[in-house]
């Protein structure tokens, strides 16, 4: 490997990638000048910022929508479209005290990522860290240091407004709960969180049933999320649109617009279980009872389906999800319309708030949708239904989501872009490729920009090759960007690093010159949120930062 410093603004140039060193080793090899940040990180009073009127927002959005559609059509009309690649930073990028974790190692890691040709990085802005000390008491200092570091390296930044807890899902390498003062309110009123039929509470994310109720020390959850996003804008206003190019609004567990239907904590759910409906807190219960009564079906409002089974069952094991099950009855359709509709309303509220705050800043607003591909080839699509996506053999559940996102000019971020049908167990009736095709069609129809992520941490050429194939399209529904999961020491191992560098290069060239293997070189069974235990060794991975 040869390192060349061309100027004070230059970074590592990889003339060959064999024997690439880790970012920790870069610390002893390379020094560089500190560029003066072009954005000022200062807190500003919301009274100093004039909010765009609703009419002006609507007018601007219509113009941007027409321009975006024209841009999407032009950009994806041939296979040479450039797809920028971002890399997700570790979940524990910030310490529990709100400071940047291992800043020297992060600095070297960012230098390496810049040398690979990556466009930038993504980071979670954890609610449980930023507003930890009390309502409206925000600590953005660690993120300010990261923003400055990215700006110095010429990297762009995607920031996730993470209103969920970290911990309890695949790949969660640390534990970051909701803010202590929120947990205090939950302890007083457990119905603030999602609840399943057996009464099991899930502390990952607040129930959307209380979205509009002042249950958080006088504020509603939507008001709390709005204040948080507004605080971020005020703190980083001068960096929005230049360094910070995207704000992803968290809308559920793992930041995704969904119910926590398949929680992995304490072994509750295992792939490929169908999951369970999460509508048994008192607020969701009251909502369903009210709509049932309004429809003249009081008896339907007594609760969710009684025959929907348990987390780890298969569709045919249940009366609700089996081929000719209750899901397709009048009651089933009524319940699923309500259940999925509540999720759409939740997303609409959060994105409306995000749009009003970030409109005109130059930063894109995005929302994440989960890639729930197991049981996709069945009629009922059980795992999608319990998660809130009313997608069946007879109904397109992703077009309503895409249209809701398009309404607010939001980028649709979708996962499982790296997965192939042939990698999945036949018994689970999976089809990640079919699911991605459906979502791409929905995005195109709704005229919404589509970006992608990989669902599992994979570094093999087979996964990269699948993303390349998925990201390109001659019909105008390719990806506008891709975010790679995730940066850690494994990424900087020689073979993995070579794969990433080649992948980024190929994405920048429209998929041309891709010298990546066409199969999973690791020969493991890789599924969303699941790695087959009999084929893997238990190991502890040490992240770079």
Automatic annotation (TrEMBL):
<feature type="binding site">
    <location>
        <position position="164"/>
    </location>
    <ligand>
        <name>substrate</name>
    </ligand>
</feature>
<keyword id="KW-0624">Polysaccharide degradation</keyword>
<feature type="active site" description="Proton acceptor">
    <location>
        <position position="453"/>
    </location>
</feature>
<feature type="binding site">
    <location>
        <position position="124"/>
    </location>
    <ligand>
        <name>substrate</name>
    </ligand>
</feature>
<feature type="binding site">
    <location>
        <position position="373"/>
    </location>
    <ligand>
        <name>substrate</name>
    </ligand>
</feature>
<dbReference type="GO" id="GO:0000272">
    <property type="term" value="P:polysaccharide catabolic process"/>
</dbReference>
<comment type="similarity">
    <text>Belongs to the glycosyl hydrolase 14 family.</text>
</comment>
<feature type="binding site">
    <location>
        <position position="486"/>
    </location>
    <ligand>
        <name>substrate</name>
    </ligand>
</feature>
<feature type="binding site">
    <location>
        <position position="172"/>
    </location>
    <ligand>
        <name>substrate</name>
    </ligand>
</feature>
<protein>
    <recommendedName>
        <fullName>Beta-amylase</fullName>
        <ecNumber>3.2.1.2</ecNumber>
    </recommendedName>
</protein>
<dbReference type="Pfam" id="PF01373">
    <property type="entry name" value="Glyco_hydro_14"/>
</dbReference>
<keyword id="KW-0326">Glycosidase</keyword>
<dbReference type="GO" id="GO:0016161">
    <property type="term" value="F:beta-amylase activity"/>
</dbReference>
<dbReference type="InterPro" id="IPR017853">
    <property type="entry name" value="GH"/>
</dbReference>
<feature type="binding site">
    <location>
        <begin position="454"/>
        <end position="455"/>
    </location>
    <ligand>
        <name>substrate</name>
    </ligand>
</feature>
<feature type="binding site">
    <location>
        <position position="368"/>
    </location>
    <ligand>
        <name>substrate</name>
    </ligand>
</feature>
<keyword id="KW-0378">Hydrolase</keyword>
<feature type="binding site">
    <location>
        <position position="415"/>
    </location>
    <ligand>
        <name>substrate</name>
    </ligand>
</feature>
<keyword id="KW-0119">Carbohydrate metabolism</keyword>
<dbReference type="InterPro" id="IPR018238">
    <property type="entry name" value="Glyco_hydro_14_CS"/>
</dbReference>
<dbReference type="InterPro" id="IPR001554">
    <property type="entry name" value="Glyco_hydro_14"/>
</dbReference>
<feature type="active site" description="Proton donor">
    <location>
        <position position="256"/>
    </location>
</feature>
């Amino acid at each position: 490997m040869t390192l060349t410093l061309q100027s004070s603004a230059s970074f590592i140039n990889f003339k060959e990638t064999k024997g690439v060193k880790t970012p920790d080793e870069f610390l002893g090899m390379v020094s560089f000048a500190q560029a003066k940040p072009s954005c000022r990180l200062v807190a500003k009073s919301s009274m100093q910022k004039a909010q765009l009127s609703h009419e002006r927002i609507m007018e601007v959005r219509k113009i941007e929508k027409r321009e975006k559609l024209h841009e999407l059509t032009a950009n994806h009309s041939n296979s040479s479209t450039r797809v920028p690649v971002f890399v997700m930073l570790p979940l524990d990028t910030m310490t529990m005290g709100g400071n940047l974790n291992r800043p020297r190692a992060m600095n070297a890691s960012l230098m390496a990522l810049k040398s690979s040709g990556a466009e930038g990085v993504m980071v979670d802005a954890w609610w449980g860290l930023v507003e930890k000390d009390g309502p409206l008491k925000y600590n953005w200092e660690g993120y300010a240091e990261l923003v400055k570091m990215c700006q110095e390296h010429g990297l762009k930044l995607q920031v996730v407004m993470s209103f969920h807890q970290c911990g309890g899902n695949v790949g969660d390498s640390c534990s970051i709960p909701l803010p202590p003062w929120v947990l205090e309110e939950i302890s007083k009123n457990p119905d603030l969180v999602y609840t399943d039929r057996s009464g099991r509470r899930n502390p990952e994310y607040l129930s959307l049933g209380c979205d509009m109720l002042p249950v958080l020390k006088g504020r509603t959850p939507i008001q709390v999320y709005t204040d948080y996003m507004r605080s971020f804008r005020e703190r980083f206003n001068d960096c929005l649109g230049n360094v910070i190019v995207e704000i992803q609004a968290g809308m559920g567990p793992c930041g995704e617009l969904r119910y926590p239907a398949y929680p992995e904590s304490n072994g509750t759910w295992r792939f490929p279980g169908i999951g369970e409906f999460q509508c048994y807190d008192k607020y969701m219960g009251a909502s369903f009872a009210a709509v049932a009564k309004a429809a003249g079906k009081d008896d339907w409002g007594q609760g969710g389906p009684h025959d929907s089974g348990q987390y780890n069952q298969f569709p045919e094991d249940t009366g609700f999800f089996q081929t000719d099950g209750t899901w397709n009855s009048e009651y089933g359709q009524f319940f699923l319309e309500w259940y999925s509709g509540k999720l759409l309303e939740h997303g609409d509220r959060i994105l409306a708030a995000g749009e009003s705050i970030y409109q005109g800043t130059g930063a894109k607003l995005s929302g994440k949708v989960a890639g729930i591909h197991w049981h996709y080839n069945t009629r009922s699509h059980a795992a999608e239904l319990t998660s809130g996506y009313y997608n069946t053999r007879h109904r397109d559940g992703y077009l309503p989501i895409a249209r809701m996102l398009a309404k607010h000019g939001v980028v649709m971020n979708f996962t499982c872009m790296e997965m192939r049908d042939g990698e999945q167990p036949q018994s689970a009736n999976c089809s990640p490729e079919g699911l991605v095709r459906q979502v791409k069609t929905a995005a195109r129809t709704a005229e919404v920009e589509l970006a992608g992520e990989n669902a599992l941490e994979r570094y093999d050429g087979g996964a990269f090759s699948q993303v390349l194939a998925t990201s390109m399209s001659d019909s105008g529904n390719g990806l506008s960007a891709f975010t790679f999961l995730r940066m850690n020491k494994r990424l900087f191992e020689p073979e993995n690093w070579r794969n990433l560098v080649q992948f980024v290069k190929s994405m920048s060239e429209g998929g041309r010159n891709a010298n990546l293997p066409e199969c999973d070189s690791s020969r493991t069974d890789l599924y969303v949120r699941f790695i087959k235990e009999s084929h893997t060794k238990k190991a502890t991975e040490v992240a770079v930062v």
